[in-house]
Amino acid sequence: MIERLRPFVPVLDWGRSYTRAALSNDLIAALIVTIMLIPQSLAYALLAGLPPEAGIYASIVPIVLYAIFGTSRSLAVGPVAVVSLMTAATIGQIAEQGTAGYAVAALTLAFLSGGFLLLMGILRLGFLANFLSHPVIAGFITASGILIATSQLKHILGVSAHGHTLPEMLGSLLSHLPELNIITLTLGILATGFLFWVRKSLKPFLRGLGTPPVLADFLTKAGPVAAVIATTVAVWSMDLTGQGVKIVGAVPQSLPPLTLPSFSVDLFRALVVPAILISIIGFVESVSVAQTLAAKKRQRIDPDQELIGLGAANLGAAFTGGYPVTGGFARSVVNFDAGAETPAAGAFTAVGLAIAAVALTPLVYYLPKATLAATIIVAVLSLVDLSILKKTWDYSRADFTAVAVTILLTLGLGIEAGVASGVVISVLLHLYKTSRPHVAEVGLVPGTQHFRNVLRHDVETNPAVVTLRVDESLYFVNARFLEDMVQQRVTEGCTLRHVILLFSAVNEVDFSALESLEAINRRLTDMGVGLHLSEVKGPVMDRLNRTDFPKKLNGQVFLSQYGAWTELTAHC
Amino acid sequence: MIERLRPFVPVLDWGRSYTRAALSNDLIAALIVTIMLIPQSLAYALLAGLPPEAGIYASIVPIVLYAIFGTSRSLAVGPVAVVSLMTAATIGQIAEQGTAGYAVAALTLAFLSGGFLLLMGILRLGFLANFLSHPVIAGFITASGILIATSQLKHILGVSAHGHTLPEMLGSLLSHLPELNIITLTLGILATGFLFWVRKSLKPFLRGLGTPPVLADFLTKAGPVAAVIATTVAVWSMDLTGQGVKIVGAVPQSLPPLTLPSFSVDLFRALVVPAILISIIGFVESVSVAQTLAAKKRQRIDPDQELIGLGAANLGAAFTGGYPVTGGFARSVVNFDAGAETPAAGAFTAVGLAIAAVALTPLVYYLPKATLAATIIVAVLSLVDLSILKKTWDYSRADFTAVAVTILLTLGLGIEAGVASGVVISVLLHLYKTSRPHVAEVGLVPGTQHFRNVLRHDVETNPAVVTLRVDESLYFVNARFLEDMVQQRVTEGCTLRHVILLFSAVNEVDFSALESLEAINRRLTDMGVGLHLSEVKGPVMDRLNRTDFPKKLNGQVFLSQYGAWTELTAHC
């Protein structure tokens, strides 16, 4: 029984060979991650428009379920910035923040998202994530970072503002600027400045003082906790709430509660498209992180099993007071750097967070929201990397267009429109590129059996035998182009007796292209010109052999271009 | 001035060299086409839900405008079955048939469609038509033929029925069956049977009687006119209208009137998407026909100029009481077979139809609608060709899926959903196929410099040097696949020292794939394995040279695979 489950439950695999050394490494990693996660979880819940405890709850059961079903040994699952913002954008249109309806909608979103991921995993559709190209993902992450940081400015300024796009947010901030709270702003700027300093300069500074590297590392990661403690104490001791500083307030002291998502059909209908988008974004982010980390240790990630692991994590979140979760970049890297060896590190982190949920929550009563906003801003601004624009511009205009459109639309229309249009643009650009394939006329490189472009290399040619190398698979988008191309070349030379189509770069001939080849063959036959194919790949030839095209072909199919050339030029 | 216009107004080209022989051929073709078009135009107007004269008006001015701006010498432009049905489906949701609003909406649809085609032509977007694959078009035409024939059954049965999908139509017909009119049914069956017989057996029959071929041909084409005359006389002489036989009724005796489309924003908004779909379908049908006919005479069609010609024709229809038009298959083939040499044949046809519109319209008062329905049924059933299912099934499952989905969705959800999903399915299947590319390990064919798949051919290999031939362009959809693929192959053999990626079939390396190549290079470097590329095409190498990848590459880029092989195996 257990043997049959093994492929679907990776824990059965690594759990058997769990050693004491691995246990001790996992425990240390869990301690570090727990300390980092407490402020981050509170902050992301704030970003999602949920009560702070939702962020902690969303980190406990999901992390355990992922440890059981996921394949990455370093991935840390929980609330992440982008998904939190998408959650807020989605639910903000359905319910008012702070109401019970809002929280239930968040659970339902996690439920739908989990169900969708699980379904994709069972159907083994993990490859679909590849449809998001690297440049689109990079552009999307950068634009999201800008959006998220902007969304947090209101907490730093101490004003109320809203909006889901950059123009909306900036407009709303400007119009609320008169409500500016100076004390909140001071706290916010100090916290942000401190956190930036910790991230950038604390480690070299401590090393300069002679601190051992491990301790320096630990202290750097505890930076946000220090900011939390310092600002909480400041608010409490100086009674700054009376001055209008907004605080986290009462957080229930409890383990994750058992909750139920709503099963209302209307709510499902309203949430299903956002749930799919959130799932896809979350999955892509998670798999990218997991693959990056796995590559460093020569481990492998199974994208389909990842879908199952993340699906289970989201279902867990739906039933324990959380909201949509995924594998986060920052927390996973910290987990990896801290030496986590197995998913058990995640389970220990969950235990740490459960203790925090029960014991530490009263301590964050006076924690100012500005500090949490500072935590988010510092975290997401490290994701902003506009150099992708320059890199893709240098490399290819098509990739640049995809990035630029994704960034502009994400900022201008919001996160969902941005990523959807990024995918569509990438696919359209690819189709456009393949619709007008490069076709090179080739000749023999003297002294070899190798054929190259006549325009780029000094090669032997023969006016009676033309070889066209088609640099693209032939399918419906470009089938007609080839017809025109051959037609044009053939009408140019009147001494022409043979056309060889060099198929070394043709990886597919679909039914539309087969019809085009038949048309070309008919026309050349009418003109008394021979049509030959050379270097047709096995899979392509197999398929052509199922039709009567090889019989209709007025010339031959040659194994090698050199063979074709020597035989056909021998008579000319 | 005229010289500058020439590329955009093909008439300036062929008009100069117009000969008397061409004139006489064009006149004969025009006479034959006119006789065929009179009943057909009335019938398609009926199909579109418009008064019969709209069909004739839509054939006059558009045909002349196409003659001026189009590039095909044989294409006959006017109402066609599929576009007529799409018009009915679109406008039926906006206005009641028979109202003035309905007719104005049809003009507006033609106006928007003409504007869209013209815009596409000016932007030179004719290549977009290639996104409809041959199998999708074939499936769509077949399903449309079935839908159209079914939609005409109500006229044959003499009942009222409605619906835009096959289940709706059949359900509606069944529920109205009690209203069956026996006399209408008798007329309808006789007309349909006669027309099928004419189409299939009249010509051999006449030839058997010793009729000269030209006359036999002419009589066959006049078959529908004979059916029209016979049934009209029958209804008139026996006063069958009193028995409930529905007739065409009064048709105004007039040249095409000057009409104006509506410029209401609401109407534009409601019609713009259908107008785009109608334009695309019409354009694809028209270009397919034009290309087929042009190929027979070694002429060329310019798709971008075709857009301009069809755009002008539709604008003409919008201002002269017509509705959306395009190049029709049946009428164009007849025109071609009848010997039309230039677009002037179309202009003469227009004159013939104008005479008919003024002089002959009173004669069709008693023409039963059942006869027109029979004309349509016989015409469209010749478009139904289910053999495409078998052909694509034998050739490739992907093409088959595209056809089958297109047919089922067109029948089940209607024409617009059918064709839209056909396009989407084709694109997705293509992306899916390229997402898991064929990668072959190749070896040297003994005695040559040619490399083939080790699994298919008896070739020389070397355990220290592995050559992988990547049979697909590398782009975001499959970038990660290559990483996994190389990783897997490399971990298999421990004596491995060099990996050569044979790039003869790689036509593009996009930014995502470049990042994957960099990742592969890093990993192989870590493992002490050399990474080499061979036979990289010019355009691909140009692009790689703009990055620092060639410098980072731990091995070399070889011009030929044979060169790579000899150099790398020399040391092993």
UniProtKB/TrEMBL annotation, chains A, B:
The UniProt transmembrane annotation reads: 27-48, 54-69, 76-95, 101-120, 127-149, 180-198, 218-238, 267-295, 307-325, 345-365, 372-389, 401-429
* Biological process terms in GO annotation: transmembrane transport
Q: How does it sit in the membrane?
A: Multi-pass membrane protein
Q: Which PROSITE patterns match?
A: STAS
- InterPro entries per the UniProt record, alphabetical: SLC26A/SulP_dom, SLC26A/SulP_fam, STAS_dom, STAS_dom_sf
Keyword terms of this UniProt record: Membrane, Transmembrane, Transmembrane helix
User: Does the UniProt entry include the keyword Membrane?
Assistant: yes
List the GO terms this entry assigns under cellular component, sorted alphabetically.
Answer: membrane
| Keyword Glycoprotein listed | no
- What residues does the STAS domain cover? 455-549
Q: Where in the cell is it found?
A: Membrane
- NCBIfam families attached to this UniProt entry: sulP
Identification of the protein by name: Putative sulfate transporter/MT1781
Q: Which organism is it from?
A: Ruegeria meonggei
